[in-house]
Amino acid sequence: MKKIGLIGAMEEEVNILKDEMTLKEIVKKAKLDFYVGSLKGADIVIVRSGIGKVNAAMATQILVSDFNVDVLINTGVAGGIKPDIKVGDIVISSDTMEYDIDVTAFGYEPGIIPRMEESIFKADEKLVELAKKVAKNIVEGRAYVGRIISGDKFVSSKEEAKRLGKVFNAYAVEMEGAAIAHVAFLNSIPFVIIRSISDNANEEASIDFNTFIEQAAKSSTKIVSEMVKLL
């Protein structure tokens, strides 16, 4: 049986899953609580990583090294970048990039990490297809498959969102997914990022985020909950 690592940055992104799981134990590591147990017949470990790429990367490596997870799923909310993407829609990662890595002074394209084998981290195709299948029956809005980009900044500018969309061909932007994907790649662990759109990364983003975060988080966690029993 596969052991599944589930990661969310904030309480709103993991509380529903924690409430649904059968808890075996809580393990404390690096000031994080790892909830070990089962959900719909699957062995799982849930962690609230905290916000940002460093926190997400650390939590992911602990899931891999200390809990020996076989699959990684990141659930949460994001800002929509593509013009057609609306609040309440879902974006499933085709791949991810860290948009705030900039070594263009040395001739690299934006987001490319020097001396790394990969800088574009591709999600597992089977997990992507499963997420798409489940989302069709759950999501009230639309479910997209596309690139999710991450950086240590809350994007709240229409112009910046437009620029990121153009430079990276991104569907959504957030602050953890690409770091999780980066660690998953280095450990050869299949992953997928599932994000519900809470705002459109524009000047109203902070207001929309606070208004819609709980409902948006519910959508992505519902998908994850259904996926778990099918893995």
Automatic annotation (TrEMBL):
Gene3D superfamilies in alphabetical order: Nucleoside phosphorylase domain
Taxonomic superkingdom: Bacteria
Reactions mediated catalytically: 5'-deoxyadenosine + H2O = 5-deoxy-D-ribose + adenine
MF annotations from Gene Ontology: adenosylhomocysteine nucleosidase activity; methylthioadenosine nucleosidase activity
UniProt keywords, alphabetically: Amino-acid biosynthesis, Glycosidase, Hydrolase, Methionine biosynthesis
Nucleoside phosphorylase domain segment(s): 3-229
This protein's GO CC annotations: cytosol
Coiled-coil annotated spans: none
The keyword Amino-acid biosynthesis belongs to this UniProt entry's keyword annotation: yes
Documented EC number(s): 3.2.2.9
Pathway assigned in UniProt: Amino-acid biosynthesis; L-methionine biosynthesis via salvage pathway; S-methyl-5-thio-alpha-D-ribose 1-phosphate from S-methyl-5'-thioadenosine (hydrolase route): step 1/2
NCBIfam families given in the database record: MTA_SAH-Nsdase, PRK05584.1
The protein's name: adenosylhomocysteine nucleosidase
Organism encoding this protein: Thermoanaerobacter thermohydrosulfuricus WC1
